[in-house]
Structures are given as structure tokens and as C-alpha cells.
Amino acid sequence: MDESAGGGGNSLPTIGADGSKRRVCYFYDAEVGSYYYGQGHPMKPHRIRMTHALLGRYGLLDQMQVFRPHPARDRDLCRFHADDYVSFLRSVTPETQQDHIHALKHFNVGEDCPVFDGLYSFCQTYAGGSVGGWK
């Protein structure tokens, strides 16, 4: 089977259904690697930076369009999440989380999904990549 038509194992076909070459887009913001979920948490955002560097070393960044995501706006976030959840993310910080005990439980925020410095900015950047990819 011709690999350009989709016979390349687990990879996506390089030719779309309409016969045009597929365009691979990659959204990356180096600042995402600066966030820290806390000691012992398995999510280590600095690994995103490491993955980006690895993509560069393999020459894969040259094979795709790289975009820096625009931070998602409140109205973008509210298309997929309840207004009160977005408001909570905007207002909660490690210093104020004790003032939000009810909301922490309601939104299941805690050990697995911790409050950390810059949480809302992180969410905006992450969601901005998804919104940018959708557009």
C-alpha cells in the first residue's frame, strides 16, 4: 500500500480525502513549561519543553507549522465550561484556596487537579492551543 495514502501504520495519511496534502500544525508556548503543579504530582509541565526540544532535534519542527497559542478568552472558555467554573479558575490562588473550600469540592479541584501559581493563565494558554487548532 502507498504510505502517502495512509498505509504508514499508526501515522495519519499525508494526503487528505480531497487529494490535498495535509498540513500539520503544532501549538507551543515555552512558558507552559514554567508552571509547577507541586511536589509529588505526576504532571510536570517542564516535560512539554523537553518534548519540544526533542521534536527540534529530530527535525520534526521543520515538517510542521508551529504556532504560539493566543490565550483563550473568557468567552472561549465559557463555550466549553460553566461560567462559575471559569470564574473560580480566574480567582483561586494557592493563597486564597482556603476561601474557596466549597468550590474546590464542587469542581473536584485538589490533589489530582491542584491549585498552583498561574493556574488561570496556564488554562488560558492550554485552551488557546485547542481553540487555535479548531479555527
TrEMBL record:
SUPFAM superfamilies documented for this protein? Arginase/deacetylase
Top-level taxonomic group? Eukaryota
Histone deacetylase domain sequence ranges? 41-131
Cite a single GO MF annotation.
histone deacetylase activity
Stated name of the protein = Putative histone deacetylase 19
* Organism the protein comes from: Zea mays (Maize)
Q: Which gene encodes it?
A: HDA19_4
